[in-house]
Amino acid sequence: MWVWFHKLGSPPYFYRLSSRLLPWLAVATLISFVVGTIWGLFYAPSDYQQADTSRIMYIHVPAAMFSMSIYMVIAAAGAVTLIWRIKLADLVAAASAPIGASYTFIALITGSLWGRTMWGDTYWEWTDPRLMSELILFFLYLGYMALNAAFEDRRRAARAAAVLALVGVVNIPIIHYSVEWWTSLHQGSTTRGMQFAATIYPSMRYPLYLMMLAFAFFYAQLMFKNTRCLLLESERNNSWVKEMVTQHDAA
Fold first, then answer.
1. Are 91 and 234 in contact (CB under 8 A)?
2. Which ranges constitute the DSSP H helices of 9-84?
3. Whole-angstrom distance, CA of residue 105 vs CA of residue 134
4. The model's pTM
């Protein structure tokens, strides 16, 4: 495992691996998005209380779930950066941050639109713990990206951003368990294990699964592309990049 871990941290190996994975991720993203969207919007039944408004969940739930998951990826990469000083981990975190911020923004907007029909004709409630903790997550993403851009020295920027990411991890369980710890307008979680299978019809559950996969594939695809760009920029003077450029020009 450690051999594979260090091998994955090699910039040339990562670049070659991502080159092989990106076409498959693009196909998987397209298929899951198209099938999941059509299934969720046109064939899945509407909720008996919320009617067609419930279809927002096919965007909101995956976006909210991966807004937290991507932040955990950034925090884990930050820990690797601080402990083992693997540059590629910092690049993966930096490449993931804009995607996570976008997912968080989508979750906030779709959540507000969905909540308006359920919360008494209001888009936002400042006293709701889930809304506020998700908003804090959005600001953590912005802070992480700002710190990355604040230092000319890439190593100092990586360390400062990694520390912020690790400190911000405390917000993730707050988001997840806020509906259980405090009074919230949000319903309790219905996406965990067998509880999820028991609380939502299969005709609604399967397209939601597909949309979760679509968001995951889309994140992986963008993360690889962003990381490759950052990697080429940081390694532009190294021999493996020059050899690759020479081979590309020759072809």
1. yes
2. 11-38, 57-84
3. 9
4. 0.92
How far, in Å, CA of 50 to CA of 117, rounded? 8
Whether the Cβ atoms of residue 88 and residue 155 lie closer than 8 Å to each other: no
**Largest pairwise CA distance in the chain:** 65
Cβ contact 75:137 at 8 Å: no
pLDDT one-digit tens code per residue, 199-230: 677 888 899 999 999 999 999 999 999 999 99
φ and ψ at residue 83, rounded to 5 degrees: -85, -50
For 70-92, give one letter per residue: b (16+ CB within 10 A) or e. bbebbbbbbbbbbeeebbbbbbb
**Calpha distance 245→238 (Å, rounded):** 11
Measured CA to CA, the distance from residue 136 to residue 128 in angstroms comes to 12
Cα distance between residue 45 and residue 48, in whole Å: 9
> Which two structure tokens, joined as six digits, stand for 182?
């405090």
Instruction: Return the axis-axis angle of helices 202-234 and 87-116, rounded to nearest 10°.
Output: 140
Q: Exposed/middle/buried for 30, CB within 10 Å: 0-12, 13-18, 19+?
A: middle
Domain ranges in the chain? 20-250
C-alpha torsion 226→228→232→238, nearest 10: 150
Query: CA 48 to CA 69: how far, in whole Å?
Result: 30
Using one digit for the tens of pLDDT, what is the confidence trace for 134-171?
999 999 999 999 999 999 898 999 999 999 999 999 99
Task: Please identify which residue in the block is written with the tokens 């969940």.
Answer: 57
